[in-house]
Amino acid sequence: MDHMIYTALSGAKQTLERQSIVANNMANASTPGFRAELSAYRAVPVNGAGHQTRAIVAESTPGSDFQTGTIQTTGRALDVAIDGQGWLAVQSPDGSEGYTRGGGLQVDSTGLLRSNGQAVLGEDGPIVMPLGAEDVSIASDGTISAVAAGGQPNARAEIGRLKLVNPAEGSLMRGEDGLFHIRTPNGQPAPAQPLDDTVRLVSGAIESSNVNPTEAMVAMIDNARRFEMQMKMLQSADENDQKANSLLSLS
Question: Where in the numbering of this chain does the Flagellar hook protein FlgE/F/G-like D1 domain appear (predicted)?
Answer without folding.
Answer: 81-146
